[in-house]
């Protein structure tokens, strides 16, 4: 059992990308994200993809302060709807799958890379397909927020896959009907039933055969491989996370294997061997960190492309530009325009 710095049991709960989507939502409503982070005991450096999942005790405080600062009881729905698929390899694989059904199967299989304490299970019947979401531990007062977030994110994902809103979606919610006549969920879905045992998201089974509008076999393969590696990292303890964290801290200087191994107090041979035991390489990790943070800088900062290249350890902006196009099939400047315009993004979207 792990104990965090405040003496609480540490239970990894949510990927930093999910917390960042809540901060994006707060910012869009005129709330300073840094204030909410500080009150919750979090900092921006805790939310890099090279870090561990945010543990539940911190997440619980974060949600309480976020809802209070926004004054919006449906903040979870709004934040979930802002979680763009391209923000994680799970989302990228889902939207680049061959069909909606295969995308949802992938989501169900790898959901723990986003939520560490939730189980997703896809059941397909002759008429109705149901995605069931069940917490593996009590969520206490965050239950409504988390369930709302999943509904919002699911609606966003379906729209990215189908190229249109999924008006056929019906949900079952594991909490009571809100007071008053305003039911926030009905802004997003056709039908909502309250007081259910678990969250359920239902679609007509016939929709599962529809093709994804951004289907791309190569993009899917690359994203699926990344998910497999991340899953392997989760199963084999924290060593890969230590490497990712140390590399992220020094990414600007572009350290090689020997330099990073020295920082970790081990030999380069040991570093390579231990990474190989879980099926990843040093270059895999560096490439993944650069890819993720390049997109984040483009969307969330005004830094010139040349400065972003330097921040990611590229001495030559031209080399960064070529590498970026190999990741996303588009130039950095064009992706920034698309992201600022609120467009969905996946590797296939540039074609």
Automatic annotation (TrEMBL):
Residues 241-338 form the HTH araC/xylS-type domain. It comes from the Bacteria. Keywords: DNA-binding, Transcription, Transcription regulation. This is AraC family transcriptional regulator ligand-binding domain-containing protein.
């Amino acid at each position: 059992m792990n104990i965090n710095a405040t003496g609480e049991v540490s239970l990894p709960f949510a990927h930093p990308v999910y917390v960042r989507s809540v901060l994006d939502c707060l910012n869009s409503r005129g709330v300073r994200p840094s204030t909410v982070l500080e009150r919750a005991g979090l900092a921006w450096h805790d939310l890099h993809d090279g870090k561990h999942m945010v543990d539940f005790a911190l997440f619980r405080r974060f949600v309480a302060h976020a809802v209070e600062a926004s004054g919006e009881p449906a903040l979870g729905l709004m934040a979930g709807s802002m979680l763009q698929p391209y923000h994680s390899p799970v989302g990228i694989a889902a939207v680049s799958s061959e069909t909606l059904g295969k995308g949802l199967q992938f989501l169900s299989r790898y959901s723990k890379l986003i939520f560490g304490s939730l189980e997703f299970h896809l059941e397909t019947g002759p008429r109705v397909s149901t995605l069931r979401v069940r917490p593996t531990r009590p969520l206490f007062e965050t239950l409504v927020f988390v369930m709302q977030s999943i509904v919002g994110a699911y609606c966003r994902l379906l729209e990215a896959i189908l190229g249109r809103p999924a008006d056929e979606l019906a949900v079952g919610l594991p909490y009571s009907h809100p007071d008053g006549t305003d039911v926030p969920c009905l802004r997003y879905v056709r039908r909502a039933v309250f007081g259910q045992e678990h969250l359920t998201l239902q679609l007509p089974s016939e929709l599962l055969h529809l093709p994804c509008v951004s289907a791309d076999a190569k993009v899917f393969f690359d994203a699926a491989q990344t998910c497999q590696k991340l899953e392997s990292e989760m199963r084999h303890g924290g060593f890969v996370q230590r490497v990712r964290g140390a590399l992220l801290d020094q990414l600007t200087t572009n350290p090689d294997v020997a330099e990073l191994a020295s920082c970790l107090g081990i030999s380069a041979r040991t570093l390579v061997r231990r990474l190989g035991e879980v099926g990843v390489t040093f270059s895999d990790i560096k490439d993944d960190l650069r890819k993720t943070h390049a997109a984040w800088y483009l969307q969330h900062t005004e830094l010139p492309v040349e400065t972003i290249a330097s921040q990611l350890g590229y001495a030559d902006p031209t080399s960064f530009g070529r590498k970026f196009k190999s990741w996303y099939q588009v130039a950095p400047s064009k992706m920034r325009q698309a992201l600022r315009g609120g467009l969905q993004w996946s590797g296939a979207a540039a074609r």
